[in-house]
Amino acid sequence: MAREAGVSKATASRALQRPDMVAEATRQRVQEAAERLGFQPNAAARALTTGRTGLMGLIVPTLSNPFFAPLVIGAQQAAEDTESHLLIAVSEYDAEREAALADRLSEQADGLIMVTPVGSDAALRERGRRRPLVLVDRQVGRLPAVVADTVAGLAELLDHLLALGHRDIAYVSGPAGSWADEQRRAMLTARASDAGARIHVLGPLPPTFDAGIEASAALPDAATAALAYNSYLALGLLHGLGVAGRRVPEDISLAAADDLSTLSATTPPVTALDVPLQAVGTLAVTRLHELITGHRRTVTSRLPAAPVLRASTAPPRSL
Amino acid sequence: MAREAGVSKATASRALQRPDMVAEATRQRVQEAAERLGFQPNAAARALTTGRTGLMGLIVPTLSNPFFAPLVIGAQQAAEDTESHLLIAVSEYDAEREAALADRLSEQADGLIMVTPVGSDAALRERGRRRPLVLVDRQVGRLPAVVADTVAGLAELLDHLLALGHRDIAYVSGPAGSWADEQRRAMLTARASDAGARIHVLGPLPPTFDAGIEASAALPDAATAALAYNSYLALGLLHGLGVAGRRVPEDISLAAADDLSTLSATTPPVTALDVPLQAVGTLAVTRLHELITGHRRTVTSRLPAAPVLRASTAPPRSL
DNA sequence: TTGTATGCGTTATCAC
DNA sequence: GTGATAACGCATACAA
C-alpha cells in the first residue's frame, strides 16, 4: 500500500477519498506517492465495504436494431455524470435468458435498467422488490419507469392521417406479445373508431424488412394508408409497394412508429415518429441513480414522441 | 449467510462453487436453503479473494455509428461463453477521455479491449504492460490484437476496379489521424502505382454523409471510380452524385470500405467490403480471456475482409 | 489531523 | 467431507 508516503492506510484512504479531512501537506505527499507507485484502488474491496459497486446493469433486447443505440448512448452519458459504469447485456427477446442475465447482473451492479418488452409482470415486480430497478418503455404497477410516449405520438400521427382524409388505415403490427404493440393497437382502434375510421391490423409480425415486404402484399384493398410498427417494417413496405408498382404517397400513404435515420433518406422520405430514446436512456440512469442513493422515490416518467411529417403521407386518391 | 442449511460457510461456499467436493446430501440442503433465502452471492467479496471480477472492459470510439454494433454483439456472445460481463464505455474518439475511461475501467475489470483509432502507441504499450489488454483494428508492437484485414480486402477491391479498367481512382479518405486510414492510403497508392494507375486522395474528411456530399463535388474530373473510407461517405457520395446528375456506375463507379446494411438497399446497391466485425468482437473477448487466465500468449489475429461486388461498380465509360 | 482496529462476504488453507 | 480461521484491500468508528 501507499504508505510509501509514510502515513497509515487510513490516512491514505482519506487523502484520496475525502481530501478535505486531511492536512494539505499530507494530501500532497499521499497523492505523489500514489502517482509514483501507479496505485490503483481496488474496486472490489471498496465495493465490499461501501456496499456500492458503481455499476449499473442495462439489459436490452437486442443491439442489432440500431433503434437501441441512442438509448445506450444516452445511458452512457448519464452514467458518466453519476460516476458509474454500465454493464450491458442482451436478452435477445428471450424472457428466460433475460431473467438469468438479470440475476447475474444483480450480483455485480447496484441496480438494473431493463428494457423488456417480453418478460412477465410478476417477475419484474419481484425483481423490483429485491433491488433497485428501472423499467424502460414499459409500465408494471408502481415500478419506476421511463417511457417514450409513443402511444400519444402515434395518436398524433393517426390524427394527421385522419385529417388528410384517410378512413381505412392498415396497422402493420410488431412482434407477438409486445407490450408496446398492444398499447398501440388498442389506442389506434379506439381512436379511429371514434373518428369514424377503421384500423386494419396485420400481424403480429417480426419487425423486419422482409416481413414488411410480405405485409405489403397483404394490405387490404380498402386501406389508403399504412402505419408500421417500426422502421424496418416501413422500409419493407416501401420496397414491396415499389416493386408492386404502387406509388407512395399517391396510391397509399406510409408512416412508421419509430424513426431510424434511413427513413429520411428514402424516396420518398417516410413520415415517422421521433422517439426520444437518448433522453430516455439518460433519464433511466438518472432515476436509477436516485433510487440507489435513496434520494427520491420515483415513479413513471413519460417523454413525448413527436411525429415527423415527410413526403410519404398525403391525402388519399379518392379525394 | 446460508447456514440455514446447518453447515459452515465454508461448506456452503463449496456446495455452490465446487459441488463435487461435497456430499450430495449436503449439496442439496445448501441448494435449497439458498433458494429459500433468495441468497445472492456477493460479487465484490468474491472478486476480493479470487482477484477476478469476471468483468471485461470494452472501449469503443462511438456507438452512434452502427458499424460498431456487430463488434459489441460479437463481444457480448463470447463474454457469455466465458462467464463474464462487458463493461462498455465510449471514447468519442478523444484520446484523453479514452485514457481516463481506461483507467477507471481497469479498476473494475480483469482486462480491457480497446478499439482506439486515436491514442498514442506509447500510452497503449504502457497500459498493456500493467493489465491484460487486447487491441482491436490496430497494431502496436507485440500487443495482443485482433484486426479485420481491411487493407487486404481493400487491395482486392482495388484489383477489381483495376480489372474493370479504371486507371484514375479517387480515395475519399477518413478522419485525420486514423491509424486504419493511413494504412489504406499507403497500400492503395503503392498498389495502384504498380499497376500503372493513380489514386487521387480526397480528405482527410469526417466520416459522415454530409462530408460525402461535399466530396462528391470535389472528385477530380479524371476519376472514373471512387472508393470511400466508410459507408456514410459512400452514401453521401451516391446522393451528391445523383443530385449532380452523374450516374453510378455509368459515369462513375463507387465502392465503400465497410458495409452497413443500407448499402445493399440503395439504387444502385453499392459494392463494399464486408468487415467481419462480429467475429472480431468474439475473438477479442476470447483472446482477452486467454490473457486473463494465462492460458496462452497471444499475438495478432487477422480476420479477412472480403469485397461484396454489387451494381455500383462497372467498367469506366471510356471502354 | 492522524493512527488503530474492525468488518464487509467470500474463497483458500489447514486441520479434523 | 467438513469445519474453523485467515486472508483479500478498502472504509470507517473510535481513540489519541
TrEMBL record, chains A, B:
Protein name from the UniProt record: LacI family transcriptional regulator
Keywords linked to the UniProt accession: DNA-binding, Transcription, Transcription regulation
Gene3D superfamilies from the UniProt entry: 3.40.50.2300, lambda repressor-like DNA-binding domains
Positions of region (Disordered): 1-22
Pfam family, any one: LacI
InterPro entries the record matches: HTH_LacI, LacI/GalR-like_sensor, Lambda_DNA-bd_dom_sf, Peripla_BP_I
Domain HTH lacI-type: 1-50
Entry-linked SMART domains: HTH_LACI (SM00354)
